[in-house]
Amino acid sequence: MSTAVLSVRLPSEMKHRLDSLHERTGRASSFYVTQALEQYLDDIEDAYAADAAYREWQADDFATVSLDELKAQLQP
Which residues of 16-45 are buried (b: 16+ CB within 10 A; e: fewer)? Predict the structure, then answer.
């Protein structure tokens, strides 16, 4: 995996917490920042995808189909 550098200003308390984790575990602070950012990005991408799906459903006047109709649509 290639990496890139990103400079971020953190509140002092957050930096202290990262430093404390580094001291206790030996892992670099960047490991924890990357883990946290990855989780956050997954969550926010899911939220935007759900919002887009809801808006599409809303634009379609909240159309629904019965289970039987859905089965018929999915059968070859």
Answer: eebeeeeeeeeeeeeeeeeeeeeeeeeeee
